[in-house]
Every structure is written in structure tokens, then in C-alpha cells.
Please model this.
Amino acid sequence: MSPTHDRGHGDDLLSFLRSSPSPYHAVASAVRRLERAGFKELTETHDWTGATGGRYVVRGGALIAWHVAEGLPAHTPFRIVGAHTDSPNLRVKPAPDTSSAGWRQISVEIYGGVPLNTWLDRDLGVSGRITLRDGSSRLVVVDRPLLRVPQLAIHLDHGVNDGLSLDRQRHMAPLWGLGGTRSGALLERVAAEAGTGVDEILGWDLMLHDIQPPGYLGGDEEFIVSARLDNLVSVHAGVTALVAAAAAPSSYVPVLAAFDHEEVGSGSESGAQSPLLERVLSRSVTARGGRREDFERALAGAFCVSADMTHAVHPNYAERHDPDHWPLPNGGPVVKVNVNQRYATDGRGLAVFAAASERAGVPWQPFVSNNAMPCGTSIGPITAARLGVSTVDAGVPGLSMHSSRELCGARDPEMLARVLTEFVVSG
Model:
């Protein structure tokens, strides 16, 4: 990528990443973009009768958004882009304040598959949501160097470079000052940032994030480096595609389903295993006067692209990859295949994605895991099994997946958005 390359999509992605340190912030960032395009929120407890146009539903860290053009019959098939808003990180425990050897610390729990060494010696902030006494929720972010998990000096851990280092997970309590434990100290800081009293906070979902901003990397700035590329790249691309689809004539109903808790199995009220998507889609049909039969017809003709980051070939560990499938950054989005159904892609799904890529003028790359190593998975098989919808797994290739700072090609996010736009508009 040359410095003069049009970086509009990349710059907008960096802005999205900066404003999305937690799943709740990612949803809020997506909603701002949707509302600028005319989308309106629907509340699950309200009547949806007559709801058409651009609509969305928020449940915690999950977002379901769709657009119904005027005049489309109730049985119009859905074109779904699935993604997830969460990323592996360190989550604050219910009793956060602790201390050791004269240092103030907080207690954290490991969320998802975290390469713990990537969180050492990083300047960390706190983000998430708080729930107040009146039942309302408020987003909060302390986006400055508040916390740090210090690495043990090599003088005290001579085996650190030999795979003989101390058990990292037992030593992941971040420090944030000197002095003994004072109950409520962290929440006082969070309450001040949120502009409320600490006595008003009855519940919280807080997590740590690396405050280093996202940016470009490389001699020609051909890479993007940031926290949470997995999977906010896909969420951002899905929002971009949905906004574009809302302005284009289509014989489908485009849908974005951005779930929470994918990194820990999707088993929650806002995860892909929940009935959230099914209920929202069903109500969107009946709101337009459709019957259950219309909903079943809409599902039978539906298709889903499960968009999640995947692995680029690692130059230092090429032997860990399938020798015939080496995706590279800036080579276009990747279609993920696993015959044991860790990914949901089959030949038909591959053809649908390849056709959308061809219409978009975008190259694509195949990915198969090395059969000698366990294969990851995504929300694709869950969606396929729960809704009975044909699904293809795809995503942007990158390095350092699940790290506190990941890498992908600077061109790939925009190419993924173009393919997803073609998919939701033309099928």
C-alpha cells in the first residue's frame, strides 16, 4: 500500500476501534453510524407493528440491525452478516480491590483465550458499563494509564525465554498505586468518570483495555495494528455494508447480527446460542403483517456470512499452517473451511461468497487449518444449526490473534466491506 492510497475506510475503522474499548462501546459506536443513516431503535418490550425501513435492537453488548424496503413481501429472504463484539481480555472481578506487599491492585478474571504475556507491561485503562440504582445503565471509560501488569524482571525469572517462566495466570493482578486495600476505591474512580455517585452503582461489567491507539504500520503503512481487530473489523465492515444496502434497491432484507460472548462460547442472552436473532427476525416479519409461514419461508431462502478474523500465514511459524493454504494480508478476505464443521462453509457457501467477491472486484483466499492441530471455530456453525440457515465462514487474515495488539492488512477491511455489501444487496 502506497502512502497515497485512499485510506478512507481504514481511517474510519481506526476511529471505530478507538471509540470501542468494550463490547458495549462497540455497539454504541455502530449505533451512531446507523442512526446517521436513518436507522431507528426498537425496544423489545414495545409493539413493533408497521416497523419498516432501517431498524435496530440493542441487548447489552449485542446489536441486531436490519433494513426493510417499502413494498417487500413478508416472506422476503434475509441476507445476514454475523459477527461478534467481544474480544479476549481481563475482566474486573465483583470484589475488585486487593493489595499485596504494599501495592494497591485490582482482581481480574481471564476472559477468553488470552495470550497473557501480551498484557504485561502495557498501560491499561478501564471500560464497560455500570448499572445504577434506578435500573439504568451507563457506559464508562477511563482511557488513560491507570493500571499495569508488571513483568517479573529477568534477573528473578531466568527461564522466561526458555518456556520455564512462572505461572503467569497466578500473577495477573494489575497494580494501580501504593498503599493498602480500600474497598470501593476502583468504583469511586469509575463513578467519577461516569459523573455519578459511587453509592448509585449497584452492578458493573468492567474490563481492561490497552490505551495505545490503533494505527498504521510498515514501510508503506500497509498494515493496521490495534487491539480488538478480532472482531471489530468485521463489525465495522458489517455496519458499512448495511448502511450501503439501505440506500440500494434489493430483493432481500439485509441484516447485521453482532453478538457478544463469542470468545467464551456464545452461551448468554446476547450470544449466538441465544434465541435473540431468531426472535428479532420473526418479529420483523409479523410486524409487517406476516405469519409464521412467511417467517419460515424467509428463513428457508436466507443466507448468512459469519464474518470473523482468521489466521494469516506466520512467517516465523509457517509449519503450523496447512502447506497449501497460506493466506496473506492485503490478499483479500478469506473463506474458512473445515469438513468437521468447526466452520460452516460448504461448496454452495463458497460459491456464494466467490460470486459476491467477483461482483465487488475483490480477490479472496481459502483457509484450511493444519489437520495436525486443533481448529478454532466461530458463530457460523451455531447460526447454521440454530436457524437452519446456509452459512459461510469468512474474514480478514491477521497475525497475533487474541493478543492485546493484533495486525491485519490495511486494504483487507475495506475489501471485506465491499464483498459484504454485494452479498447483502445482491445475494
Q: What stands out?
A: The longest strand covers residues 89-100. The chain has two domains: 8-87+227-426, 89-210.
